[in-house]
Amino acid sequence: MSDRTYGLRTWSFLMFGLNTCIPMFFLGSISYGLGLSPFEMIMAAFLGNFFAVIAMLLNAHAGVKYGIPYPVQAREAFGFLGSYIPTLFRGIVGAGWFGIEVFAGSLALTDIVLYALGVSNPATTAFTYVTIFVVLYLVAVYLVMGAGLKGIGMVADYGGPLMLLYFVWLVWFISTKASGFTIPAGVGLGSAAFAVMLGIQTNWWATMAINISDLSRGAKAYSTVIIGSMVGIVIGQIVGTSCGYYLSAFTSYILPQDIILNFAPGPIAIILGLFFAFLAPFSTDITANTPALINIFTSIFKLKWKMAVIAACIVAFIVTPWWNAANAQTYLNYVQSFAGNYGLILGPIAGVLIASYWILRKQNLDMKRLYTRGQGGYWWHGGVRVSGLLAFFLAIVLCYVTAYALPNTAGIAMQNWAVGVGSLTLPIPGQLAWYTGVVYGAVLMYILTAITKEN
Question: Looking only at Cα atoms, what is the longest distance across the chain?
Fold first, then answer.
């Protein structure tokens, strides 16, 4: 308990910090491009993040009550060895987000240097030199992550909130000078476009809905996690999405870095904005993305913390889209495609964890069993809990079945794209697959536990 440093203020700022990042403003750009009205944009942001936070809070309870991280929490639901599978999948998604945020922060650093050197049109030139700053960014990540939970809290206290305040001011400033812009009339709450946005908003924090115990174990009280998460994520996401929406409407630009360079009034405002544009994704990486990736190296490969951080940074360099993002539009497309699809995997994991902890175990975990490898621990069948893993994989199958039954033409964004295999066209469940995945995972976990008697 003496190592739990997150009170309400720190946790709220921590949630603001991991929530407020450059890609968050893309949610507004995507909403604007889909033709959503301001009301529809706000409703998608509220509903999507509210449901994601509910799942997050349910999984956070074990971290607060027992002080355990996600890989240990998963041992009860999936088995001591079976827990490696959900840990691996969460880490893969975290690696993708890690790379996206690294690119955003590195691009801001590149813009700062090019602007300071007087380079003409730094917004375009930055894509040429961004790889250099990716390396510098990752060195900074290593230096901060080496400090552990205390270091994470100190950095995350300031990055996100400062950037959000800056962009609220920037929206107001640009609105006083903007002219000739149009605000979409809307597409309807039952439209496919609204469902697409709802799904993307949900998937945004379906990631932390799984491994939130990695952070909640440092919280002093569960009430702190509830209040701070609702304020920092739900409200923060609504404000950030709204900023991105109106900035796209007022300027016709996509990247916040480009908007700062072209519309902020004067050198001080530009440098300050770009610095926040670096600090915000940086704080998101160290709170939301690196822990999930580090979990792979500490729990599966048994690396020490600092070596795991180095390994995570190497992976991040490889997956950072410096090799794919040649301009603002390709970067936005990369983010939208990635964020729209991993709910298919994370939803079932969340459902299994929630059902096992709240319904089957009734919030009671045996700490000795959690840390005992072999008989006497949560070993089940050779280290694998059959009901948990089977529920996970069957839930994914059922998401595919649902994708066939509810196509996009019905206004449900379950088929994000189709992959052709010979004469067979296979839909990839995207967007709202997280919702069906959570339900299927929870229900199957309950049923299969009764059948296998793994209780």
Answer: 70
Torsion from C-alpha of 273, 278, 283, 286, nearest 10 degrees: 180
With H, G, I as helix, E, B as strand and everything else as coil, classify residue 415.
strand
- For the chain, the 3-state helix, strand and coil shares in percent, each to the nearest 5, are 75, 5, 20
Dihedral sign, CA of 113, 22, 272, 141? Answer: negative
Judged on CB neighbours under 10 Å (0-12, 13-18, 19+), 229 is: buried
pLDDT at 416: 45
Mean pLDDT for 373-394 is: 96
Q: Is 212 helix (H, G, I), strand (E, B) or coil?
A: coil
Confidence (pTM): 0.88
The domains found in the chain, sorted by start residue, are 8-339 (1.10.4160.10), 350-452 (no CATH)
- Give the up-direction half-sphere exposure of residue 367: CA atoms within 13 A in the CB hemisphere: 7
CA-nearest of 140, 128, 148 to 102 is 140
Please state, for a pLDDT cut of 70, what percent of the chain lies above it: 91
